[in-house]
Design brief:
With 425 residues, the protein is of the alpha/beta class. It has helices at residues 15-32, 60-66, 79-84, 105-115, 141-146, 165-168, 189-209, 225-232, 278-281, 293-300, 322-329, 331-348, 354-359, 373-384, 387-400, 406-420, and strands at residues 6-12, 44-50, 73-74, 95-100, 118-123, 135-138, 155-157, 179-184, 213-218, 246-250, 259-263, 268-272, 286-289, 305-310, 366-369. Strands 10-11-12-9-8-13-14-15 form an eight-stranded mixed sheet, sandwiched between helices. Strands 3-2-1-4-5-6-7 form a seven-stranded parallel sheet, with helices on both faces. Helix 1 (15-32) crosses helix 16 and helix 7 (189-209) crosses helix 14 (373-384). Keywords: Glycosyltransferase, Transferase. This is Lipid-A-disaccharide synthase. It comes from Prochlorococcus marinus str. PAC1.
Length: 425
């Protein structure tokens, strides 16, 4: 392959990172540079390598393919094969840049070293391998302050990548008038098996008390309508503990841009299958959500939220993140130490929602423990009946957001590094 050929590789993991970091940056990079696959005869390509992650669903590759942004997409299960034998996945140019955008930062270090490429990291909280980076782009000055002084010149503060989400949330497909509640039950089975039956019952209880309320489920890119049906059915043991269920689901058609779910109690819930659903979400008054990257998305859109983690089901421990989550997934340990893990997490846990983690204080309510749909329904109604409280949370979320333009600044840093190394004409 010609020495002039260049590969840019994004390294990422779960659905949240793909939606909030990878997709916006890929779109902007295609605008700035002529890249394959968008420009067929280009000598430069944009690629995606997915890495092992306990929070991934396995469906990330399906979402990424739909965007038509990447020349090559390597599945997470093939990551080690890629390291051992890169040629097995096609030819790779002699020049390239690996960019960390989610997962364990060490994976991108390994890949850049294996291919002999430049390396760049987007550091949301900390840059863990600073000496292995040609450049670091950081969310805040606090990250720069933690770096060794001789590394700090390599680091540029660009702000919060998710802050640009509001720019894409143009209301071009308005929802009908009324009070709207977004329901985000999760993006992986560990959360969906609890979130779907729980949130369906919450919707039924709210609808009974406030008939003028309307509901929306924006489907995560890694799930689908069939999973909604499955986890609300008797095939999901947890659904038997709730009274609500699905009577019918109608998929969206050309005339109606959203699907329609009707519960057994006749509550109507619109289903938005197109992702990201920022336009629909930005029109909602409040969101009920599980933990995860969705709390960052909602925060960036300034949407008031209540974060819900019902821990009365022992299998809910599969939804914990990190090492604890891995332990709790082991079949032998799931039953014997699940309750112990729950107790420890509830007693010693830090903040779970992104706005609270970043602010180091409670900005959005987190309801964790033995909670019922009736309790969450009542609290949601209280929020909806208190416009001042809603606007106060919106203002707090607005203050937390980074300055806009992080995606464009990131692209500038990528191009600047490639030019500095004489890899761009």
């Amino acid at each position: 392959m010609s020495h002039n050929h260049l590969a840019i590789i994004f390294v990422s993991n779960g659905p949240g990172e793909l939606a909030t970091w990878v997709n916006p940056l890929a779109k902007e990079l295609h605008k700035q540079l002529k890249l394959k696959p968008r420009v067929h005869n280009s000598s430069k390509s944009l690629n995606l390598v997915l890495v092992p992650c306990p929070n991934a669903t396995g469906n990330e590759i399906i979402a990424a393919k739909k965007w038509f942004q990447f020349e090559k997409i390597i599945k997470a299960k093939n990551f080690w094969k890629l390291l051992l034998n890169p040629k097995k996945f096609g030819s790779w140019p002699s020049n390239g840049l690996v960019i960390f955008l989610g997962g364990d930062q060490f994976w991108s270090v390994l890949l850049s070293a294996r291919l002999g490429y430049l390396h760049m990291t987007y550091a949301e909280w900390i840059a863990r391998w600073p000496f292995w980076n040609n450049r670091i782009v950081a969310m805040s000055e606090r990250i720069v302050d933690k770096l060794p002084k001789r590394i700090q010149p390599r680091c540029s503060v660009i702000g919060d990548l998710t802050a640009d989400l509001t720019e894409t949330a143009k209301i071009d497909n308005p929802l009908p008038s009324g009070k709207w509640i977004a329901l985000l039950p999760g993006s992986k089975s560990a959360k969906l098996k609890i979130g779907i039956p729980f949130f369906l019952e919450v919707a039924d209880k709210i609808s009974k008390s406030m008939p003028d309320c309307q509901f929306l489920i924006p489907l995560a890119p890694t799930t689908n309508i069939n999973e909604l049906k499955y986890f609300s059915s008797s095939k999901n043991p947890i659904s038997k503990q709730y009274k609500s269920g699905i009577k019918s689901i109608t998929k969206a058609n050309k005339k109606e841009g959203r699907g329609i779910l009707i519960t057994n109690n006749s509550t109507v819930i619109l289903i938005q299958e197109t992702h990201p659903a920022y336009s629909d979400l930005s029109q909602c008054d409040i969101a009920l959500t599980t933990v995860g990257a969705n709390t960052a998305e909602l925060g960036s859109l300034n949407i008031p939220m209540i974060v819900v983690v019902p821990t009365q089901h022992i299998l809910v421990m599969e939804a914990w993140d990190g090492f604890i989550g891995l332990i709790a997934r082991l079949p032998i340990l799931k039953w014997c130490i699940g309750l112990l893990i729950s107790f420890i997490k509830l007693k010693k846990r830090g903040y779970l929602a992104w706005p609270n983690i970043y602010a180091k204080k409670m900005i959005v309510p987190e309801r964790v423990g033995h909670i019922t749909p009736a309790q969450i329904a009542e609290e949601t109604i209280d929020w909806l009946n208190s416009p001042t409280r809603l606007s106060g949370q919106k203002e707090d979320l607005q203050l937390l957001r980074g300055s806009k333009g992080a995606v464009k600044k990131f692209c500038y840093q990528i191009i600047n590094l490639l030019e500095e190394k004489k890899l761009l004409n």
